[in-house]
Amino acid sequence: MTLVLENISRRFADVDVIKDISLSVEKGEIVGLLGTSGCGKSTLLRAISGLDQDYRGTIAINGQVIQGVHATTGFIFQEPRLLPWLTVQDNITFGIKGKQQAVFDRAKRFIEYVGLTGKENLYPRQLSGGMAQRVAIARALVTSPEILLLDEPFSALDAFTKMQLQDLLLEIWEKYQTTMVLVTHDIDEALYLCDRIVVLRDQPGRIIKTIRVEQQHPRNRGSVEFAHYKTDILNQLDFSQ
Amino acid sequence: MAKTNTEIKARYAMKVSADHKKIWSSFERLLLGSILPIALIITWEIVSQLGWVESYQLPAPTAILARLTELASSGELTQHIYITVYRVFAGFLLGTGIAVIFALLVGFLKKAEYVFDPIIQAFRSIPSLAWVPLFILWMGIGESSKITMIAVGVFFPVYLNLVSGILTVDRKLIEVGRMYQLSLFQQIYRIILPATLPSFLVGLRSGLGLGWMFVVAAELMGASQGLGYLLVLGQNTLAPETILASIILFAIIGKLSDWLLKVLESRLLRWQDRFERGS
Ligand SMILES: Nc1ncnc2c1ncn2[C@@H]1O[C@H](COP(=O)(O)OP(=O)(O)O)[C@@H](O)[C@H]1O
Ligand SMILES: [Mg+2]
Prior knowledge:
Distance between the termini of chain B: 41 Å
Number of domains of chain A: 1
Number of strands of chain B: 0
Number of helices of chain A: 7
Radius of gyration of chain B: 25 Å
Shape of chain A: globular
Oligomer: heterodimer
Distance between the termini of chain A: 39 Å
CATH superfamily of chain A: P-loop containing nucleotide triphosphate hydrolases
Number of helices of chain B: 10
Largest sheet of chain A: 6 strands, mixed
Structural class of chain B: mainly alpha
Bound molecules: adenosine-5'-diphosphate, magnesium ion
Strand content of chain A: 25-35%
Structural class of chain A: alpha/beta
Radius of gyration of chain A: 18 Å
CATH topology of the domain at 75-268 in chain B: MetI-like fold
Helix content of chain B: over 70%
Order of helices and strands of chain A: EEEHEEEHHHEHEHEEH
CATH architecture of the domain at 75-268 in chain B: Orthogonal Bundle
């Protein structure tokens, strides 16, 4: 699954939010979109997802220009966005079709996988923020997406839950080699997870630098190399202006 | 082994005491709720027995009870109750059915909103009871005018609540549906309708309340049977105990029907995250 963006621009009410963004993502790659708040990261991700279609430019998945939501794309939002009237089990199987038994078995596997065994019959209101986001992750994975789009999926969670779920994401990636585009404003998160970090800035948002992180997973969160990358990125974002 | 046994026992004891607590708390609630009504009835009875109020104005509770048993033993009472409940039920179904159809149209199609909403809002500003004479003129004093009357009363709360429920469904949840490529029909069926259920049920409950109000109005206007007819009968025969018997029955049956909807509501909305008050 390759993903190619060509000259993507989007305006809201005559204001350019992103302008001429081109990017190509290879199969199995984890690409981070990193930037300050308001630089158009979510806007770009929504264009890729097909939820928003009023952009200029083209987006192609496997060489095919997309029109609308693509069947093999999954989205994990910043909030869990669970359907409050469905149990954990039913939320997870929300997007899959097929024979009941097969759906059930598949759901069971992913419930186990994200560590929610025994919680199948709880309603969203009974879940903590971390558990709810695990359900959202399972819901996105259960349809085996080939491209997973994540919009600051862990930003509302406490530091420990965040680390756990980041590791869960890497496990998933190791197992399925899912292509991922991860929006984040957390430099450490980007360095820990991504093969490539695309740094966005300004209004309208544009790409100011792309950084390749060569380290193998699992990475050491506190390595000296990370500190160098981090300084570099902070310089790029240049808050002094 | 011995240890696990005691553990099991301890856990069992905990469960039993939790059950007891539950039963006790609902019993306590009943007890607290009964204090005022019982005190009121006792005072009322004493005041009547002492002759402080005239019985042709306010008869004693025992006199009302006697009237009720008299009506019940002649079989008249079930007939009156049956016909009134039937009218409310039929009017409720009719009003709800029409309200649901219009609310779905207006909620989902902007054009339908432009067509129907102004006229519905205009009709809403007419006090519904003002229709009574016209309906009687058109349909006579038979069942159809009464049921139509009640349906009009039920229509508005159900319609208004359902429309506002549909219009305030969280756009974020609809996006989840779009991510899974649900068709428009599936989006309606799997996301919008369940999300709307809470406000629909609010509409049903207030609609039913109005239905009870309107059945009284309809039966006062002209009926030969029904609890509302008992009111008129009591007035004409200078029998306040008949009027009060009818009022009490209205209260009991109205409350009962609301309770049924409430049970339905708590069944259907188990998933809802509600505010829970302290004791
Ligand atoms: N639906 C919208 N209508 C109008 N303006 C929008 C809309 N969505 C986003 N914007 C604007 O676009 C800019 C970028 O938003 P967003 O993509 O959410 O930023 P980020 O995710 O990087 O924080 C913001 O200034 C925001 O106000
Ligand atoms: Mg954002």
